[in-house]
């Protein structure tokens, strides 16, 4: 499967203040990033849009906008790169279709090997029993 590239104009990046500890610096520096991606307005194929909109992802709003928050790194640039990489990962994961699994039956020889292994294992466990005292 080919990986999908999303043009920069299709998502909106907004700088916000990060959560958590950080002292005085956390209150004045907006290093976290909010990425908003409108799935319906994007240039993705209709099939892929439908798959993304039907996904049970809690980051997806009722309007069909995917919202990602990146605040792992200390710099705004690193968080921007992280948010875009995560967006691409989500879209590429939705594009991947797992092959259909067909039910098969085990062969007679494999069934016999399985039963023989179980009998051998049971014999080993029987040998672990208490030894009788002889007088």
General description of the model:
- This protein is an alpha+beta fold.
- It has a domain at 8-95: Double Stranded RNA Binding Domain (2-Layer Sandwich), CATH 3.30.160.20.
- It has three helices and three strands.
- It has a three-stranded antiparallel sheet with strand order 1-2-3, covered by helices on one side.
Using brief descriptors, characterize the structure shown:
single chain; 135 residues; alpha+beta; Double Stranded RNA Binding Domain; 3-stranded antiparallel β-sheet
Tally of separate helices: 3
CATH C-level name of the domain at 8-95: Alpha Beta
Task: State mean pLDDT (0 to 100 scale).
Answer: 85
What is the CATH architecture assignment of the domain at 8-95? 2-Layer Sandwich
Summarize the structure.
The chain has 135 residues and is α+β, with helices and mostly antiparallel strands. The protein has helices spanning 46-54, 76-95, 108-126, and strands at 11-16, 32-38, 65-70. The chain has a domain at 8-95: Double Stranded RNA Binding Domain, CATH 3.30.160.20.
Fold blueprint:
Blueprint: E1 11-16, E2 32-38, H1 46-54, E3 65-70, H2 76-95, H3 108-126
Antiparallel strand pairs: 1-2, 2-3
């Amino acid at each position: 499967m080919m990986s999908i590239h999303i043009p920069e104009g299709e998502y909106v990046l907004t700088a916000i203040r990060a959560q958590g500890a950080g002292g005085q610096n956390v209150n004045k520096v907006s290093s976290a990033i909010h990425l908003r991606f409108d799935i319906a307005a994007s240039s993705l194929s209709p099939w892929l849009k439908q798959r993304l909109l039907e996904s049970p992802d809690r980051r997806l709003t009722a309007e069909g906008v995917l919202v990602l928050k990146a605040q792992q790194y200390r710099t705004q640039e690193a968080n921007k790169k992280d948010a875009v990489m995560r967006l691409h990962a989500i879209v590429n994961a939705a594009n991947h279709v797992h092959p259909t699994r067909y039910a098969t039956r085990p062969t007679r020889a494999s069934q016999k090997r399985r039963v023989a292994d179980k009998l051998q294992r049971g014999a080993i466990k029987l040998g672990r029993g208490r030894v009788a005292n002889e007088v």
